[in-house]
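A note from the maintainers: we've had questions about how concatenated examples are separated. There is no special marker in the raw files; a new sequence line simply starts the next protein. For clarity in this README we add a label.
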Amino acid sequence: DTNGVRIANDIKYLKALKDAGMDAFYLQFDGLDDEIYRKLRGANLLNTKLRAIENIRRLEWRCVVLVVTLVKGVNDDQVGGIIKFAVENSDVITCVNFQPISFSGRANKIEREKKRITTDEFIDLVEKQTKGKIKREYFYPVPSMVPISKFIEANIQEPTTKLSTHPCCGVGTYIIIDDNNNYKPINEIVDVDRFLDVIQHGSEELRKRGSISTGTKLKLLINLLKSSAKNINDPRRRELILNLLKSGEYDDAAKFHENAIMIGCMHFMDPWNFDIERVQRCVIHYSLPDGRIIPFCSYNNLHREAVEKRFSIPLNKTSTRQ
């Protein structure tokens, strides 16, 4: 059984995962119709997935990332419905990550063209199937958020993680959920473009003045935060964002997500759209037993077979593994 099937049937196992400190559960969720699962997974799985979500709810655990393999002609009509489902279950769901199909093996040109969905097409599907509520211009490439990391780094004077991946690797946006399970795109709460511009210039200013006194730096920081706050028209959201900018702490980042859902699209590459520039800027890697670190898409397309042949262990011998 996969973990998703197991937690649908074994809440004790699920509780053990929670007690062990797991903070995110990626659940394959291709749609709201069993016909889709029969086509993509070969079985009726919808009720199993709903049971898994219900078990997570019983533990009052907000940790679910819905992962959608998106295939043209199979479930591309489900995008809006899946987002609606996530909103209705936002007490447990934190993110919906759509992944357009990647091809392997003997996928011919006709099949690829028939089933392929690009990131741009995905964004159009979101806008159309949410009836214009989540507009295409509300999506930003992943590296658009780098200015926030740079600002925090300049402020706390410690290195931060920067998701400086290639712009074509993924896009995302946020929707904010209210107490009545209605949602508003974050772009209607925050002037994202102006906010990022202020943050970008602010980080440069903080870096240039790295040697100034604590009092002067604090005054500069306050002015920068005030400037960025002008672009956030919701008091609670303003407080959460400013706290994150000031501290850079994981807990403050988590609080920002408390009543938010991220809608993202990560288009992994296959042999027919492989791009060296994207690989060179990859931020998701496989760590191998021999010490190598290999970018995700190059591993899946070039290395997986050889690595599995070299390092795989038969199931009946795993107990003796050192």
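[label: protein 2]
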Amino acid sequence: MKRVTNAVKLAVVPPVGYAVIQILRRTMRWHTEGGEHVSRLFAEGRSVILAFWHAQQLMMPLAIPRLEAHVLISQHRDGELIRRIIARFGLDAVRGSSTRGGAEALRRMIRIGRSGGNLALTPDGPKGPRQVAKVGVVQLARATGCPIVPMAFGCSKKNSSRAGTGSSCPIRSLGAPSSWARPSGYRPTRPLTTWSACAGRWKRP
């Protein structure tokens, strides 16, 4: 019975998830900040590493339309659902995480980055700690020479709550370009987070 349930999920959830994301896109007014930095990197022929929090991954397939990228996704069953959803946006998946298949996934990501492919991952991963970046994204950047582009998504509910009360986490990195998309009318309720490299991992100072 469990096998049948999993098969139904794999057949139903990806097309429904894709449709939900597209419906959400059509109900939002989008505003992007910092996109010129990413455009400049692409104009220079650079490949990039897109980094965003695990809790904000839902709308990220729409952050840079028509971008070809390879996304690091866990080998868990939920990861397979995500893989099938992002495939509908033209994105490729590299399977692995810190708990299963991570070393091989990192090696594959390095090969892709060195060959000119764009990479994407959640530096805090599915296991957390939430919004604490692990060292893997830095290792990947060092091994490939690709710049890290921190990204975030924020939104507000029109006419139902005070602007800025939606989920938000704007990011500004030291000495690196930043880019994040948000619907117009959004006002952050807290200062921008600044990241710095400390003792082999990134954390908020």
